Amino acid sequence: MQYEAPLKDLRFAMRASGALDAILALPAYRELSIETLDAVLGEAGKFFADAVAPDNHTADKEGVRFDDGRVAVPAAIRNAWRQYAASGWAGLHAPEAFGGQGLPKVLAAAVCEMLNASNLALGSGLLLCDGAIEALLLAGSDEQKATFLPPLVSGAWSGTMNLTESQAGSDLAQIRTSAMPDGAHYRLRGQKIFITFGEHDITGNILHFVLARLPDAPAGVKGISLFVCPKFLTDETGAYTLRNDIRCLSIEHKLGIHASPTCVLSFGDEEGAVGYLIGKANKGLEYMFHMMNAARFTVGMQGIGIAERAYQSAAAYAKVRVQGTPAGASPAGPMPIIEHPDVRRQLLTMRAHIEASRAVALTIAAAIDAANGSHDPEERARQQHIAEFLVPVHKGHCSELSVEIASIAVQVHGGMGFVEETGVAQYYRDARILPIYEGTTAIQANDLVARKTLRDKGRVARDLISCVRSAASELKSSADEELSAAGSLLTDAVQRFEQALDWMLSRATENLPESFAAAVPYLRLTGFVLGGWQMARALQHAKRERTREHADTGFLDGKIAIAQFYLDAILPRTASLLFEVTRGSAQVLRMQAVSF
Ligand SMILES: Cc1cc2nc3c(=O)[nH]c(=O)nc-3n(C[C@H](O)[C@H](O)[C@H](O)COP(=O)(O)OP(=O)(O)OC[C@H]3O[C@@H](n4cnc5c(N)ncnc54)[C@H](O)[C@@H]3O)c2cc1C
């Protein structure tokens, strides 16, 4: 099934969520016109749909080859990566000073969705390059920026993130890789596992961003530093030809993303891998968190991308697969399965989740743009806090939803969903990594509870609650009955969010483990409320647009139906999630480990 870039939907979401207005009002983007944004979006859509998406299945079937330390990726991945770099997509959001285009995150997020819909394995490698750029911009020295940023931004080199060790997965305090000072640089020794695109044959060099400990470092997370270790070092002529002491020992055989190499890397088997300290010693985790925040946002976008592709397959299949007479159909006789109410329910469920997630994602991207580009320092700080609060919600919620949506797509295909030819089974397999890497859903939820909710005593959460509440009140006072009903549904949902927040804050002082037992349901509840907020805005926007002369009524009626379905049928999930938060967590803790 051919992937079609959802340009019309993306443009609608940008307008309805207010992300577009927010961006064009920023001083940094005053020169930018809607036409330019539209043109870039259109070009990206064409590139990913025509040049990358068609090879998704063949690249997955071909997989990655490992031979004595060398890793060969499928030809389609190599070509797509190089074309992506040559067309300038790698530097879309990067600063112009380093060869980027300095375009807003809102646009980059939309492009990122299409990239990951076209090939999630390719996207998994490229997301780490963005993270590497972020880390250097945050903490790199001027020399490191001048040396490493231009080839990363142009896509000539790639970047990796080396956190995980066999004993240090979610718990990075256990990291053991060591770094010994050696003149102007350091010598690293240790083994990292699960390193995405840790070795490959696409780019001229690979910059490994590695978490390691200095000899005198304090124990735990306060003793971790960040280093950059290039695969190739310079020879006497300044060319990058000397192999650093880094070896790929093996690659993993995985459930999905078969075209993405997942490597075991050994640093320093011989003289020690040369590494350069990024920023200050022992501040590595802080920098890595910055890099991870960017990467976590992207993983949320990967979820939306793969969900959109799975949805498109399911919708196309449902229109051509003829099976059975739908209840009440006349004349009786077999019809395409899309005529069965339950198939439509499944398609609409997928579509509503995707549209809500996309709108929330664009809102976060707009907050990131405002945090970087607003002229008012107070507003910059406020937007930064909002974005930081929302990133774990987006990562956790969208990645979990992507698995649910891909699973529904398999279901719509019936038996054909369970065999590989239709491609939909691949989406399901591929999506399954998203709630795991860049921190599992539980780790996102712990971050949301501990760092984003309890630390500031719910201040940012209350800021968001008041935004949602004022949107709900505006809708409630509308003369349009549907809008007013939407306002009531949103009011109920935001009330539940507030109740969950109050419970979280009070339980944390009385019984902290209960707060963490409720962390994932609290994250999901927040995700659904934000989705409801955005779908209410979409409903309002679609209705307003529909009154214009020459309105695209067919398209807008679809938007109204999707938003209304979200508010009526999906948003009420917040009620059961509130029970899970406030009642379920005590039961979770009541059951002792020995009873399992
Ligand atoms: C395909 C793939 C690509 C990857 N790419 C990279 C990469 O490029 N770089 C890199 O450094 N790593 C990478 N990883 C590693 C990935 O980030 C880790 O697998 C992930 O963080 C989880 O760590 P773990 O596997 O050790 O699981 P564990 O930490 O052992 O977790 C097992 C289970 O326990 C739960 N758990 C653990 N701690 C807590 C807690 N405090 N609270 C609640 N629940 C908890 C988890 O949620 C999970 O369900 C990749 C992994 C895969 C599979």
User: What is the radius of gyration?
Assistant: 24 Å
**Are any ligands bound, and if so which?**
flavin-adenine dinucleotide
Helix content: 55-70%
The overall average pLDDT, rounded, is 96
Report the structural category.
alpha+beta
3D architecture notes:
The protein is 59% helix and 11% strand. The chain is globular and about 80 Å long. It is built from 20 helices and 12 strands. Strands 3, 4, 5, 6, 7, 10, 11 and 12 form an 8-stranded mixed beta sheet that branches. A two-stranded antiparallel sheet has the order 1-2. The relative contact order is 0.10. With 596 residues, it is α+β, with helices and mostly antiparallel strands. It binds flavin-adenine dinucleotide (FAD). Flavin-adenine dinucleotide (FAD) binds next to β3, β5 and α14.
